[in-house]
Amino acid sequence: MIDAPAPLRPEELQTLLDQLARDAPRCFGEGRVASYIPALAEVDPDQFGIAVCHADGQVQCAGDAQTRFSIQSISKVHALVMAMQRLAPEDIWSRVGREPSGQAFNSIVQLEVENGTPRNPFINAGALMVSDMLASRLVMPQHTLREQVRRLAATPTIDFDERVARSEMDHKARNAALAYLMQAYGNIQSDVELVLDTYFHNCALAMNCIELAKSFAFLANRGINPHDGTHVFSEVQTRQMNALLLTCGLYDAAGDFAWRVGLPGKSGVGGGIVAILPRRMSICVWSPRLDSYGNSIAGRHALEGLVSGLRFTPMG
Ligand code: DON
Question: Quick one: which of 109, 189, 289, 302 is 20 to 30 A from 16 by CA?
């Protein structure tokens, strides 16, 4: 039997992170920033940040790791965490599936074919369904989510970018179509406009790589938030969430991401990607230029580099 290799020492990991930040500009020629939400198009596209939060809460970073950006779909994980903490499993999984969709994150085709039940909680339809679960149970769902994220990241200044939230509401047609279609099937319990407002605010949270990596550290630490010792998830829920991130976190590019990176992950059209190395670390990379699937090009590239530089990955 081969012994498990020792993890990189902090100074070795720092050298690797610095190298990845130096190499990132090679990807700056490719891809475009998201522009279907006009407020997102205003970002400087040629930026790159990376942060790692170890299972004990220690952080290492390189590049533009302190610049806040729009976390977008990464917030779908925080929202699902809140639903899994509050609802019985059958009350969640009878309303949303756990299978990869193989379709774009905002596709509407499958939703009608499958009678208004979204394939998984990370495509837009599924996240709208989770927003409905929260909106029908909480008095101020978006503020509860903001409090949760502030606690997970141990950063009380995290807030919504109201310009982004408004821009999403002003260009809501596709998400509104998804939500109203689910309502037509009798699957939405709250007011649809409240569901949309909740969802858009979640997506409009502004955070930097360090804060995002910190907010996901509990998924690398068996469900315990290392910043304050609280139990966010049970060990079983932690495994379940990581499995769902591996199969569904990068939409119709989930298979390719698993092939190249091999870690549970979640992307957002703000250019962020979060990944988990279970029991070791959570990672956040950010670079705004996206591929045709809506995933950060330099971000994914850096994660490939990080994984090849680590001596241990869940895939062997
Ligand atoms: O609803 C939307 O389309 C955006 N607020 C979020 C989409 C997103 O981040 C997809 N991720 N790659």
Answer: 289
- What tens digit of pLDDT does each residue of 193-240 get? 999 999 999 999 999 999 999 999 999 999 999 999 999 999 999 999
- The CATH number of the domain holding residue 201 is 3.40.710.10
Torsions phi, psi of 77, nearest 5?
-70, -45
**Predicted pLDDT at 26:** 95
| CB of 105 closer than 6 angstroms to any ligand 1 atom | yes
Q: Catalytic residue at 76?
A: yes
Specify the ligand 1 atom closest to the Cα of 270.
9
The best mutation among 131, 269, 290 to test binding of ligand 1, ranked by most ligand atoms within 8 Å of the C-beta, falls on 269
- Within-domain flag for 158: yes
Give a yes or no: residue 315 inside a domain.
no
> 156-191: per-residue pLDDT in tens?
999 999 999 999 999 999 999 999 999 999 999 999
- Number of helices (H) and strands (E), helices first, in the chain? 13, 8
The whole-chain average pLDDT of the chain stands at 96
State the residue range of the domain holding 101: 10-310
* 4 falls within a domain: no
Q: Report yes or no on 1 lying in a domain.
A: no
In the numeric block, the tokens 């241990």 are attached to 312
Q: Taking the CA of residue 87 as centre, how many other CA atoms within 13 Å lie in the half-sphere pointing to its CB?
A: 22
Q: Which atom of ligand 1 is nearest to the CA of 200?
A: 5
251 belongs to the catalytic site: yes
Number of structural domains the chain divides into: 1
Q: Measured from the CA of 105, which atom of ligand 1 is nearest?
A: 10
Give 96 Cα–ligand 1 centroid separation in angstroms.
18
Compute the C-alpha angle 283/253/271, nearest 5°.
Answer: 45
Does residue 2 register a pLDDT over 70?
no
Q: Which of 52, 96, 261, 269 is catalytic?
A: 269
